[in-house]
Every structure is written in C-alpha cells, then in structure tokens.
Write a structure and sequence with these properties.
By secondary structure, the protein is α+β, with helices and mostly antiparallel strands. It has 15 helices and 25 strands.
Length: 567
C-alpha cells in the first residue's frame, strides 16, 4: 500500500509492505536551511498504541548515554530523507506523523508536519502469499534478545530463536503441507536440499491422512567433500530415511554421464486436489535449517491453478530423469519468452533451457528500465548485469550481494575483478551493499554480533529476485530459485516467477529489500579499517550540512526523488 501526502511543500510517501513501512520525505532545498532532521510518531490503531519511534544516532550535546543505543526521534531526529519502520506488523493500521525540525539539539522546533495513514499488507492475501525470513541473525536485536547463546544447530526445538528467525517462513511451509488434509489431496515436492526434519515429518503425516505425496530430491553424484560425503544427496537420503518416508522419495539425477552434473536446484511444492493443481509454494528457500532460519530467503505461495499447473508440468517432466538436451528443448518451448515486457499477471520460466535467452531477457529488462532497479546476487554479478549497472537507463540502481565477487574467480584475476566492481560502485546511479556483520564493539554502544552457525557457504544473501521500477503503477517482480547466471539458465533445474502489475507484491518485496540493504550497507561500511570507521562515525550533524548531499546529482538525491515520488 502506498500513500503520499503534501502540506506546505513538505511531502511524505509511505510504502507499506508486510513487516516494513518505508517513509520517504521531500521538500524544496530552499526550505532546508537549518533543518535538524525528522521526528516520526506512530499510532498503531490495531493495538491501540502511540509513541515516538526510535533512531540509532544522537546529538552529542543532549546524548543521554543510553546503553541501548536507541533514541526517540523527537529528541534525536532522523537525518535522512528515507527511513524504514522495521517494527511494523502485517495487517496493521498505522498513522505516521512526520515532523521536520529546526532549532538546536536542546530546543528543537517543528516547522513542517505531515500525517499519512496506511495499512500494512497481510502475508497471506490474494493470489500471492509472501513470507520473508528474518535473514539478519547478525543484528543488534538478535544479540539483545538472545545474547551469546549456543549456535542453533545445538538448540532445542522450542528454542525461541527458531520462530524469531523464521518470521513466518517455516510456518508457511508447514501450513502448505497441512492443506493436504485427506485422500482427495496430493503434494508434489521438488527439492535441491531435502534436509528439514519438520518438513519430512509433515509430509509423512500428510501421507497418513491419505494424501498422495511424492518427493523428488537432488540425487546427483557430485564430487565428495573431504569426509567423502556427497552434498546434498547424502543428507537428503538421511532425512528421508530418518522420517520413514524413503518409499515416497525419488532421486532427481540431472546428468548421470557428467563428472560435475548440473544441480536440481528447485525448492517448490505443488498442492493438488482431485488430481488438479491448486497452488504452488516456491521461492529461494532450501528445505534446510540454514535456508529457513539462517541466510535471507523468501517463501512465495501462488494461489493460482494455472501457475500451479505449470509447476506440476515441470515436476512431471523431471521425475523420470529425462536426457538433458531433451529437457532443455521441452522447457524452452514451454517458456514462451516475450521480446520486451512480460505479460500482465503471473508467468513462469523454467530451466534448463537450450539457450541463455531468458538470462538475456532479464538483463534487457534491467538495462532498459527508466525507473529504478533492485537486484539480489547470492553468487556474484553476471557480466550481463554488470553491463546493466554500467550503462543502464535507470537513474537509481541497487545491488545487494552476499559477496562482492562470485566463486571461481582465478587468483590472478581477483584484483582486476574487484577493481571492476569498485568502479561500478562509484557510479552515481549505483548503490551496492555486501553482506557483513559487526565482529567487534568498536562502534560506540554497538555490540559484537554473531551468526547462527547454520550456513557456511552463503551466509547472508541467498534470495534471487529483481524489482523493475517497483514504485510505478506497472512494477515487475522476478523471483525464484535461479541465480541470474548462465548455469541457472542452461544447466540447472530452476524456476522463476515473473509478476507484472501487482503493486502489493512489489511493495512487500521492496520493503524487505530495503530492510536488508540498509542492514548490510552499514555493516559493510563498519567492516572497513578502523581509521576509516573513526573518521566516519559521528553524532548527528549540527552544522547544517547533512541534508545537502540529498540534493544535486548524487545517489542520495536520486534516492530522495524516487522514493518520495518527487523531483
């Protein structure tokens, strides 16, 4: 939901997702002289609460020295033209009162005020149900809530960290399986990682209720690790055996003749009723503890029989382990890629394909959009997308990455590859953030953070989605299992949803994107050498300077204009 209000030249636009409300402010540059920042008051009409929201920085002059490092914004305002409320709850009715302040730290005065009233989106609502996990275990809130407790792989099932980190993702997976209530229902599962005991138990229970349950998991003979184990095949087998559902499972082998076979990278389930597809659960979330509770992921349920049937067709195609070239040809024919914009509504793209046409098409959308671009990259940025960030038409282009460089870059080429990415970052239209955490408490009142211990390879960003001009009336959301790479297009089993014109879905994805982008952009900055941190970490500005970087030809000026819907 989006609401935009203007009073006395002061504009506030609220973009309400499910767990995030993004507030964007705008005013003429001429009105900003002496501007000390924004105070934000929230009234929660659902829970009948009202209070000033908190920020993370303070004025040195009036700093109360709180150990919590949180400060009410009417005393220590937000010095930025965009700010997100990450404490919002799905399906809540809120009023945000935003005040622009002048004066001094000890005597702040309101000189502009706008109120916006919004309702956050429910996670399950309409044709698309969207559940993002927390995806940020390395956070101040995690440490405040749970302190230095043992890693999660040692935790009991009732440990309170599980639901906090899941944030609805695990619950959505289990609720989807529970819909197979009796013999009239069926479930078709395609999994790269089938290592979630709770899911295996739920599927066993569905079978006992009479549902027709069939499971495909990656059984490729990948190179073994140092212990001789083949991942994920051996873990998948162990999970099925432990749950007593081996008879329901079949191994998906992409290429029996290949030393390094493509991976069956799907993470979807199709719900059937009387043999007909009803809904599909998909997204980036592997069915594993690390996928659900660790790295950032999304569970996306589509309540559309036509879309669900496309996934059922894909499942039926791969269940008998067809020859790879045959599967490529069949899926390429089914995809029917458009030349320019996708069809209105929801369509699907499945891999492996005979060519990289789908990847080229994604890159074309990224390059040609004239609004804004937001993408996640779990395994580095493909060359075609580097070109989109180098010379694309969008005046604002965000990238959120697990690592700056993808795997497999030869040592001799790493310096040049890093410089190439650094050059891209310096372009005024580009705003990059790379996963990181606070490993020390060198920053005043910030405590050392730690991860869950559930992820070793991809620790932070595992989502695979792109948002093409999400704040327009015709946004495009592309989301699923594929990593925007050549391998994910022509080699691996993959699936993507292409959703055009659904502002609700775009608002949910954008809110979560900015939540993670802001989280990791700060932590990446804080991980720089101490001399850089010492030079950059300051209290709130009292020298009438902070707002100036939000005007002119700067990345923050473009951010202010795009999110506020202004100039």
């Amino acid at each position: 939901m989006r609401v935009r209000r203007t009073k006395q030249g002061f504009t506030v636009q609220a973009i309400a997702g499910s767990h995030v409300v993004l507030l964007a402010m705008n005013m003429p540059k001429a009105d900003c002289d002496g501007h000390m920042g924004f105070a934000i008051h929230r009234t929660d009409h659902t829970e009948n609460e009202a209070y000033w929201l908190d920020g993370m920085k303070s004025f040195a002059e009036t700093d109360p020295g709180l150990a919590s490092a949180k400060y009410p914004t009417n005393k220590h305002p937000i010095q930025g033209f965009t700010w997100s409320d990450f404490s919002a709850k799905p399906g809540h009715h809120y009023t945000y009162r935003v005040q622009a302040l002048k004066g001094t730290p000890a005597a702040l005065q309101k000189f502009r005020q706008v109120e916006v009233e919004v309702k956050t989106e429910s996670e399950a609502d309409g044709d698309h149900d969207v559940f993002f996990n927390r995806g940020a275990a390395a956070s101040q809130e995690y440490v405040r809530r749970f302190n230095q407790t043992p890693t999660l792989n040692q935790a009991a099932p009732d440990d309170p960290r599980w639901p906090w980190l899941s944030r609805g993702a695990n619950e959505a997976i289990l609720a989807f399986v529970a819909r197979a209530a009796h013999a009239g229902y069926g479930l078709r599962v395609a999994a790269y990682e089938f290592r979630l005991d709770a899911l295996a138990a739920a599927l066993k229970a569905a079978k006992k209720r009479g549902a027709d349950v069939r499971i495909l998991y990656d059984g490729c003979n990948n190179p073994p690790d140092q212990q001789g184990d083949v991942f994920p095949r051996d873990d998948n087998r162990a999970t099925a055996l432990k749950a007593g559902i081996k008879s329901l499972c079949k191994e998906r082998i992409t290429r029996a003749d290949a030393k390094n076979p493509p991976i069956s990278h799907h993470k979807f389930m199709v719900l059937l009723k009387n043999g007909k597809a009803q809904a599909v659960l998909t997204g980036s979330t592997n069915f594993s503890l690390g996928g659900v509770f660790g790295q950032s992921n999304v569970v996306h349920v589509v309540e559309n029989p036509r879309v669900a049937d496309a996934y059922l067709q894909c499942w039926n195609l791969i269940q008998n382990n067809p020859q790879h070239p045959e599967l490529q040809q069949t899926l390429s024919a089914l995809n029917k890629l458009p030349k320019k914009l996708p069809r209105k509504g929801t369509s699907c793209v499945f891999s492996p394909q005979s060519s990289a046409d789908a990847l080229d098409w994604y890159a074309q959308l990224a390059t040609e959009t004239e609004g804004a671009l937001f993408m996640t990259f779990a395994f580095g940025m493909n060359a075609q997308f580097k070109q989109a960030y180098r010379s694309g038409k969008a005046p604002l282009r965000y990238a959120l990455m697990d690592k700056l460089l993808g795997p497999g870059v030869p040592k001799a080429q790493k310096a040049a590859a890093k410089q190439e990415m650094t050059n891209l970052r310096f372009q005024v239209a580009n705003r990059f953030a790379v996963g990181n955490l606070l490993t020390t408490n060198a920053l005043d009142r910030w405590v050392r953070e730690h991860l869950t211990g559930l992820n070793t390879h991809v620790r932070f960003i595992h989502t695979k989605f792109m948002l093409v001009n999400p704040l327009s009336n015709d946004p495009i959301v592309i989301t699923g299992s594929a990593n925007f790479s050549r391998a994910s297009t022509v080699s691996n089993d993959e699936n993507m949803l292409v959703i055009r014109g659904n502002k609700r879905v775009a608002d949910v994805y954008l809110g979560e994107y900015m939540r993670l982008w802001n989280h990791y952009a700060f932590r990446e900055w804080a991980a720089q050498p101490a001399t850089v941190r010492a030079a950059g970490f300051k209290h709130l500005d009292t020298g009438n300077r902070w707002w100036r970087e939000y005007f002119g030809n700067s990345a923050r000026s473009r951010q202010r204009a795009y999110f506020s819907g202004g100039d």
